[in-house]
Design brief:
Number of strands of chain A: 2
Radius of gyration of chain A: 28 Å
Number of strands of chain B: 2
Largest interface: A-B, 72 and 85 residues
Structural class of chain B: mainly alpha
CATH architecture of chain B: Up-down Bundle
Largest sheet of chain B: 2 strands, antiparallel
Largest sheet of chain A: 2 strands, antiparallel
CATH topology of chain B: Amino acid/polyamine transporter I
Radius of gyration of chain B: 21 Å
Strand content of chain A: under 5%
Number of helices of chain B: 17
Shape of chain B: globular
Number of helices of chain A: 4
Low-confidence stretches of chain A: none
Oligomer: heterodimer
Distance between the termini of chain A: 11 Å
Strand order of the largest sheet of chain A: 1-2
Mean pLDDT of chain B: 89
Strand content of chain B: under 5%
Structural class of chain A: mainly alpha
Helix content of chain B: 55-70%
Number of domains of chain B: 1
């Protein structure tokens, strides 16, 4: 097998490639933050009676909250801020399909490239 | 400490220095991870309760023990800068290697961002001055550590060894100061974790807690990044990685026990400083100040190690022409991948200012879990392509393929846990990796020298 000689990349081409990667990184990481998609569904289950007992805190727990500087009123939003786990099946299926598709593509395309590498490496000898 | 210095220049190519020993490998791994005991792990209590945080501490410990076993075998055999990147290049192929390097860069850069945010918030909380923000502390942390990394790997990891050891000892001191053998005096586990609140969301909460359970140990696999800079990779890497994992399992168990015995789970789940809070709750100013300083040191050590690892992964991409070769420059005097260090600096700074702590942690966890999924498949391929006896291995991990299967199954559970909290982010990130993979496979790969991707003195892999 003849040895593959890659083209030389111009400086402008290198700068352009760096820009592509940087933009892709920012879009992938920053966009979910900007669109408010990051973070789990949490909401406050408000209680009318704001006492340690109503908040489900025994005397030991209450004494620690107080040592940390909280009152039943200020601790209410922390204690009652709960997750509401709901399995959204369409999203779960999309996520599974994206993940599986990604890994299948990765391994298949990598294998094609790997065969080039092995052929060139070992046919040289 | 003896330092073996290689010739500064090999031919006309400046190389990285082989100056590190097992203690540095331990410091790199534990230094990156130990911050997880000071913040982050406790968000798993928020997800599923105090008992869920303990269950995931053990189960995720099993995941990472598998990671350490697998990593020790492959890295002690493929000893090259880039760690898992170099493994992927030799075992799976260039596209996988490109992705693994990006997993590493994202995981470590976002971990560095989390560390800097933690450090800034801790100082602001301690100062208690109205109007003081964490921004200047974050910027100073990232810039100073990047400069330290720019100046040299030996100095960087010597600093890491010292500050990691101090932070670790502080956890041990706290543990023995609260009389762990008696309940009721300082520790009140029975009254804080009751049958009624141990698992407030049931078993779905335990699964959800996996997301932040990863934070107990995330980054231990970073030890492999030093493969090209250790004097004896076959000895130092398995020894340093396994010792690091044992150290972390002990620290995680002590941290959970003390914190769950001193704080209600609702508070434990939202505080940014569980160990510092535990120090405060003992009523001892000495312990409070010790844990405050240790929180800062743990964050510094972690960010320091992360800059080291992310830069080496990025450097490797440039060196192999997966990215422009400009990144592959080694500093002629300090022998560090200085351009990669400088390039990643503004990216870390930008995200430190736009993301909050648990978002940055989640970014890091996502890339970490993608990488562990790769590792579980990679070891199966490694053993298949080069069966035992066909090449010289520095270390052979026992019970194959059980660790790989355990790792893969736990990765699937963790993906589900991330879906429960950050599903959209996971899809966005995988979509990014997919698109950038298309870019690499159909465009960038043409600049890659095929045969040069395989540098190990091994026979042809079976099946090719």
């Amino acid at each position: 097998m003849s040895r593959y000689t890659p083209p030389e990349q111009s400086k402008a081409g290198q700068v352009f490639d760096i820009a592509v990667v940087v933009v892709a990184i920012f879009v992938a990481l920053w966009l979910p933050l900007k669109l408010g998609l990051a973070g789990a569904a949490k909401s406050i289950d408000a209680l009318d009676a704001k006492t340690w007992e109503a908040l489900g805190q025994n005397p030991t727990m209450a004494s620690i909250w107080e040592k940390l500087g909280y009152t039943p009123e200020t601790a209410h939003d922390i204690i009652q801020n709960r997750f509401h786990y709901v399995i959204d099946w369409p999203t779960l299926i999309i996520m599974a399909a994206v993940l599986i598709g990604y890994f299948v593509f990765l391994f298949r395309a990598s294998d094609r490239e790997y065969r080039d590498v092995i052929n060139e490496k070992f046919d040289d000898k | 400490m003896t330092i073996a210095v290689e010739p500064a220049v090999q031919g006309d190519r400046v190389s990285l220095l082989r100056v590190l020993g097992p203690a540095h490998v331990w410091a790199l791994g534990v230094g990156i991870v130990l911050v997880g005991e000071f913040t982050g792990w406790n968000f798993s209590a928020d997800k599923g309760g105090a008992l869920a945080a303990l269950i995931v501490c053990w189960v995720v410990g099993l995941l990472y023990t598998s990671v350490a076993m697998i990593d020790s075998e492959v890295t002690s055999t493929v000893a090259a800068a880039g760690g898992q990147y170099a493994q992927a290049k030799h075992i799976v192929g260039p596209l996988m290697a490109f992705n693994v390097a990006l997993f590493l860069v994202f995981a470590y850069t976002m971990l560095e961002v989390s560390d800097a945010i933690l450090l800034g918030d801790t100082i602001v909380a301690k100062a208690g001055v109205e109007g003081l923000t964490h921004n200047s502390f974050i910027a100073a942390t990232i810039v100073v550590l990047a400069w330290l990394n720019y100046r040299g790997v030996l100095m960087t990891l010597n600093v890491n060894f010292v500050i990691t050891a101090i932070a670790y000892i502080s956890i041990v001191i706290l543990f023995f100061s609260v009389s762990p053998w008696t309940q009721g005096a300082v520790l009140k586990l029975n009254e804080l974790v009751t049958p009624g609140n141990a698992l407030p969301y049931g078993w779905i909460g335990v699964i959800a807690a996996f997301q932040f359970g990863i934070w107990y140990y995330l980054g231990i696999e970073g030890t492999t990044q030093a493969a090209e800079e250790v004097r004896s990779p076959a000895r130092s890497l398995p020894y340093g990685t396994m010792a690091g994992m044992i150290t972390l399992l002990i620290a995680a168990a002590m941290t959970w026990y003390v914190c769950a015995s001193m704080m209600p789970w609702e508070y434990l789940g939202i505080t940014y400083y569980p160990l510092w809070d535990a120090g405060k709750l003992t009523g001892s100013p000495l312990l409070e100040n010790l844990l405050f300083v240790a929180t800062l040191l743990a964050a510094l050590a972690s960010a320091n190690g992360c800059i080291n690892d992310a830069a080496r992964a990025w450097f490797s991409l440039g060196r192999d022409r997966y990215l422009p070769t400009w990144f592959s420059a080694v500093h002629p005097k300090y022998r560090t991948p200085y351009r990669s260090i400088l390039f990643l600096l503004p990216i870390a700074l930008a995200f430190a200012f736009i993301a909050d702590l648990n978002q940055a942690i989640t970014f890091s966890i996502l890339s970490g879990v993608l990488q562990y999924t790769f590792m579980s498949i990679n070891i199966i391929m490694f053993r298949k392509k080069w069966p035992l006896g066909s090449i010289r291995r520095g270390y052979t991990h026992p019970f194959h393929p059980i660790p790989a299967i355990v790792l893969f199954c736990l990765c699937v559970v963790t993906f589900f846990a991330i879906f429960l909290g950050f599903g959209s982010q996971l899809i966005a990130m995988v979509a990014f990796y997919f698109l950038i993979s298309l870019w690499f496979h159909f465009y960038r790969y043409k600049f890659v020298r095929r045969g040069d991707q395989f540098t190990m003195p091994w026979p042809k892999p079976q099946g090719y």
